[in-house]
Amino acid sequence: MARSWYITTGVALLLGLSCAASAVERFPPPEFETGYELPSPTTPAPPHDAYEYVDAAVLLAALGVSSYLVLKMRSRRAIFALTVFSLLYFGFWRKGCVCPIGAIQNVVLSISDPSYAVPVVVALFFLLPLIFTLFFGRVFCAGVCPLGAIQDLVLLRPVSVPNWLENALRLLAYVYLGGAILFAATGSAFIICQYDPFVAFFRLSGNLNILVLGSSLLLISVFIGRPYCRFLCPYGVILRQLSRLSKWKVTITPDECVHCRLCEDSCPFGAIREPTADWSLRDYVIGKKRLAFLMVLLPVLILAGGWAGSKMKNVTARMHRTVRLAERVYLEDAGQAEGTTDASSAFRATGKPTEELYAEASDIRARLERGGWLFGGFVGLVIGLQLIGLSVRRQRTDYEADRASCLACGRCFEYCPKEHARRKNSRKMV
Amino acid sequence: MAKDEHALTRRHFLRDSVWGTCLAGLGALTGVLIGKFRRTDTVWQIDPYTCVACGNCATYCVLEESAVKCVHASAICGYCRICFGFFGPEPVDINEGAENQLCPTGAIKRKFVEDPYYEYTIDESLCIGCGKCVKGCNTFGNGSLFLQVRHDRCLNCNECSIAAACPSGAFKRVPADQPYLLKRVDHA
Amino acid sequence: MKSEHNDISPHNQAMHPWYDTAVATVIVSGAFSVVIFALLAANHFQRSVADAKREEQLENLKTTLRSQPDNQQLISQIRQLDLQIRQHRIRRHDFSRKGAYLLLASVVTFLVATKCAATFRKKLPEPQLQPDRRDEQFREAKYARWAVATGLVMLGFAALLLAFMPAIDFSAGGAAVASYPSDEEINKNWPSFRGPGGLGVSAYTNIPASWNGKTGEGILWKTELPLPGHNSPVVWGDRVFISGADPNNREVYCFDALSGTLLWTGAVGDPVSSGAEPIEVMEDTGYAAPTVVTDGRRVCAIFATGDIGCFDFKGNRVWIRSLGIPDSAYGYASSLAVYRNLVVVQYDQASAEDGKSKVIALDFFSGRTVWQTNRPVGGSWSSPIVAEIESKPQIITCGDPWVIAYDPANGAERWRVKCLSGDIAPSPIYAGGLILVVEPDYKLVAIRPQGRGDITDTAIAWSVEDIVPSICSPVSDGELIYLLTSDGLLCCHRLSDGTKLWEKELERNFLASPSIVGDRLYLLSEKGVMFILQVGVEYKELTRCELGEPCFASPAFGNGRIYIRATEHLYCIGK
C-alpha cells in the first residue's frame, strides 16, 4: 500500500517536473500494457439539412392556401383552421425559429458583413411572405405567422383601441424595426430574437423574463387583438407598406357595399375604415395650410432624428460585446471598477494589447454613429409621413379594410349581408 | 368626369410603378443574396481553446437542460490517478465519494484501467455543462476535458443565448457538415 | 337594416344546447390552468430558493470536512445531501416538462371552450344612428396627429437622454491610465525583496535607531505569524505583506501597518495538496523562502512547490498558477521581482546541462505568461533585480556560471558574463554604474553593464578574491560596498576599484542581508540584534538594538518604521 503510494507520487513528481510551466500536456499520455483502447468523443450530427427545405415548401404552400382562403373562398372557418395548423407546425413543431421576422436581421447582416452569408432557407423565409404580400395583401399575417396565430387564437373578448392610441403605438414598431436593422448591421445583437416574446412558449422552456413578457403579451391579447402584430412587429411594418400596393386586396363585401354598417365594429384590429364625409371649403383651406406646414416639417424631422440617432452612439454601441468589454477593461485599468469579470480576465489572458481593443471599440462606435444617422432619420421620416398621412384628404365611398392594417383574418366577412347572399347562392349552385 | 378619370389613371399608374419598383427591389435583393448563398447551413459550436469554462453554458441555454456538455479527448488525457477534473480542491481521500468530487451531478465516471492509470468518461445524461471539470483540467491538468455543443440537443437558434453571454467569445458559427471543434493532440 | 331574427338573439330564451357544457369546461379548465401554473411557478422558485440553500449547505459541510477529514458521519451526511440535490434536480426538470405540456393542454381546452361559449352567445351588431360623421372624423384625425406628436416628443426626450449620457472616452484614457505604479511611488515603498531596485537601500531619513524588544520600548506592534517562512516583509502604503507555509498550506498575509492587525489571509493551494505527499525541502529553506512582491494594486507570492498566486489588496484571489515543482537542491528560494505590470520569476533548477532553468515574466493582472526564456545555468538561490541602466530597464540575474541581463519587454538576453560558479545565493546589486555579484566564499565581481552578447572579456571592471558571503547579498551607497558573511565578518570595499578598506569580526551569525538607511548601515543578526553602524571608510558602531527573538529574514523599511520578521512574530519598530 505504502509502496504504491510512493510509486504514484514519484511518478507524479517526475511527470510534474518534466513539463514546462504552461504546456498543454503536463502529464504525458500513458502507454498502456493491457491493450486498452482509447475511446474517442462522440459527435452526434445536427438534424438533417433537407428538413429545412420541407419547411420552406410548407411555407410556400401555406401562403398559397392562405391567399386562396382569404381572397377566393372567403371563409373565416378555413382561415382559422389554417391558423391552427400554422401554430402547430411553424410554432410548436419547428419551435418558431427561423421565422421571417428574425430573418430581417440575417439578411441585413449578410448585406453589411461580407463574411456572413445567409442560408438559402432563411432568405426564402424572408422573401416569400414579402412577395405574396405584394400580390395578395397581408395573407402571411392571416394564417401563416405562428406569432400572429398564437395571439389570434387567445383573442376572446376584443376591446377596440382608440384611433389616436393606435397611431401613436404603431411608432414603436418602426423604432423596433430601425433598431433591429441597426444592431444587426453592426453585428451587435439580434434583438428580435433576443426579445421574441412567444418563442419561449413554442420551446416550452426559456428565460424567466421572456416567459413573463410573453405571458403578459398573451394576457393583453385576450382583450386587445394581436398587440404584437399591430404595435411591435418589425416585419409587419414592411408588410404594411407592401400591402398598400398589392394587386389584389381584401374586401369586406364580395361585390358592392350597401352601407348597412353591420361590419363597423366587426374588426378586432381596428382596420375597417368608414366612408369619408365631405369637406367644406374652409376645411380645404385649413387642411392645405396644415399639409404645407407638415411637408416643410418633414425634412426637419428627418435631419433632427438623424442627428439625435447619431449622438446616441455611445449608448447604442454598448449593445456590442466588444464595446462592453472595452469599457470594462478601461474602468478596471483606471481603478474605477472592483475586481475583474470573466470577460475582462479572459481578454487579458489572450495577451491582446488594450489599445487594440479600444481602437476596435471606437471603430464600432463610429459605425453606430453612421448607422444612427440612418436610424434616426428613418424614425423622423416615419413620424413625418404619418403626420402627413393623417392630414391628407381621403375619399372613400364604401366601408373598406385599410390595406396596411388589415390582417386578412376574415372575421368581417360574415357580418356583411352581401356575403351571406353570396354564400347562399354558391350553396344553391352546388 | 374626364379629370376624375385622368386622376384615377394617374394614381393607378403611380401605384403600379411603385409596385413594380418594389417587386424589382425584391428581385434585386434575391440576386444579392444568391451571390452569397451558402450551400450548407451553419450551427453553433464552442472553440475549446478560447473557452474559459465560466459556467454560463449551463444557465444561459434556452433549454432547461443545456445543449452544451463536457467532452473528453482521451488521447490528450494523462489518465492520472489524481485527476484535477474529477477531484475537487483538497479532497479528503482519493476515492469516488461525493465529498471528493468536483462535478455537481457526478457525471464523470472514474474507472481503474491498469496501474497507475484511471479512465475518466462523461455520462452525458448527467452532465449539465457547468465546466467545473474543464476549469480544473485546464488549470492543473492536460486540458483534455472541454465543452461542446451537442447537436442532437441544440435547437440551433438564430441568435444563441449562450453565445451572447459568453465572456471570451468562444462561440462560433461553423458549417453544419463539420459541426464540432474537438481538441487534438498535436495542437500547439 | 337588421337581417333575419334568428335563434341566437340575446332576447330569446332558448340557448344553444351545448352552452352550459361550454361554460362548465371554461371554469374547470381555467381553474386547472391556474393550479398548474401556480405549481410550475412554485417549482421554479423552489429551484432558485430551496435548492440553492441546499447547495450552500453542502458547500459548508464540505468546508467543515476539510478541517475534520476523518469524520465518517460527516462524509455520509455529505453523500446523502449530494444525492438528494441531484434527485431534486432531476425531479424538478421532469416536473417542468410535464407541467408545461399539461398547462398547454389545459390552456388550449380553456380557449376552445371559451370560444365555443362566446359563439353560442353571439350577438348581432346593432349600429347606432349617426347623421354626419364629419366632426367625428376630423376630431379623430386631430387626436391622432397630436398623439403622434406626443409620441415624437417622448421619443425625442428618450433620444436626447441617451445621447447625452456620460460615456467613456477611449482616446483620452490610454496613456493617463497606468496599470502600474510610477517610479516615485515605488521609491516611497518597499515593494519587493530588499526594497526598490533590490538594493537594500532606504531613502527615508527618519528610521528609528533604538528599540528594545524585551521591554517593548520603540516597538509599535508585534503580531504572531500563523505559518513560518524565511521571506522578508513587503510594504506598500499602509499595508504589510508576508507569506508563510508548511508542507500542506501556503498562505499570504496582509497586516495593517499602523496597528499590526492581520487584515486577511490568502491561501495559495492546488488540488494535489491533500491528496498526495507534500514535496520535501530542506528545513533551513522551508516552503516559503521567496519574498512576495507588490505593484501597489496586487500582491504576488511564490512558494517552494512552484505554486504562485496573486491577490488584490482586499484579499480576493485574482489568479493562481502552478509553474511545476522546481528541481532545486536546497529548496526554491528566489524572490520575485516586479517591473511595471510584470512579475519576474527566476526559475533556476538542477544543473546547467539539464536545461530546466528559465526566467518567466507573468502579467501581474492575469497571471498569463508574457514571455519566458531558457537559462543556461544550474540551480541558484539568488533573486533577480531590475536596474535602470542608461535609462533602459534590465533584469539582472545571477546563476552558475553566467550573470545574464534580460530586456523586460520580451525576455531577450542583452548581455551575459561568465564569472560565477557554485551555489549562488547572494543577489546582485547595481551601484555606481556597476553590477556587483558575489561568488560565495570566493570573490566579488564588478561588471560594467555595457555591450551586447557575451561580454565576459571586456565587461569585468574588477574582481576581488576574498572571504565573501555565501548567503547575504551586498549593499552599497554608491562609493563603498559592504559584504557580510554568515559567520559575522563585515568587509568594506571601495566601489570604484574594489580595494578592501577594512574588515571587522562581529562574532555573530547573520542570515539577513545588510541594509543602508541614509548614512547608517543596519545589520540584523540571527539572534535578533540589530547592529547600527556609521557608513564610512572606518568601522564605527553606533548602537545595538535587541529584539529578543531569532531573525532570519532581511528587514523592510517604511516611513519612520522598520518591519522585521522574526521566527514567530512580525515586528514593527517605530512610533
Number of spatially distinct domains of chain B: 2
Major sheet attributes of chain B: 2 strands, antiparallel
Oligomer: heterotrimer
Strand content of chain A: under 5%
Number of helices of chain B: 4
Please give the share of residues in helix of chain B.
Answer: 25-40%
First-residue to last-residue Cα separation of chain B: 84 Å
Count the helices of chain A. How many? 19
Largest sheet of chain A: 2 strands, antiparallel
Rg calc of chain B? 27 Å
Strand order of the largest sheet of chain B: 1-6
Largest interface: A-C, 81 and 72 residues
Write a short abstract of this structure:
The complex is a heterotrimer of chains A (430), B (188) and C (575). Chain A is an all-alpha fold and 430 residues long.
Description:
The complex is a heterotrimer of chains A (430), B (188) and C (575). Chain A is mostly helical and 430 residues long. Chain A folds into 2 domains: 53-252 and 263-276 and 402-429, no CATH class; 281-389, no CATH class. In chain A, 63% of the residues lie in helices and 1% in strands. Chain A contains 19 helices and 2 strands. Chain A has helices at 2-17, 50-73, 76-93, 100-112, 120-136, 139-143, 146-153, 163-185, 191-194, 199-203, 208-223, 227-231, 234-244, 281-311, 313-316, 321-333, 342-350, 354-389, 417-429; strands at 272-273, 400-401. The termini of chain A are far apart. Chain B has 2 domains: 1-37; 42-175, no CATH class. In chain B, 28% of the residues lie in helices and 18% in strands. Chain B is built from 4 helices and 6 strands, in the order αβαβββαβαβ. Chain B has helices at residues 2-35, 56-60, 132-140, 161-165; strands at 42-46, 68-72, 108-114, 117-122, 145-149, 171-175. In chain B, the strands form 3 sheets. Chain B has a two-stranded antiparallel sheet with strand order 1-6. The radius of gyration of chain B is 27 Å and the shape is elongated. The model of chain B has no long low-confidence stretch (mean pLDDT 87). Chain C has 2 domains: 19-120; 183-573, 7 Propeller (Methylamine Dehydrogenase, Chain H). In chain C, 26% of the residues lie in helices and 29% in strands. The N and C termini of chain C lie far apart (106 Å). At the A-C interface, α1, α8, α14, α15 and α16 of A face α2, α3, α4, β10 and β14 of C.
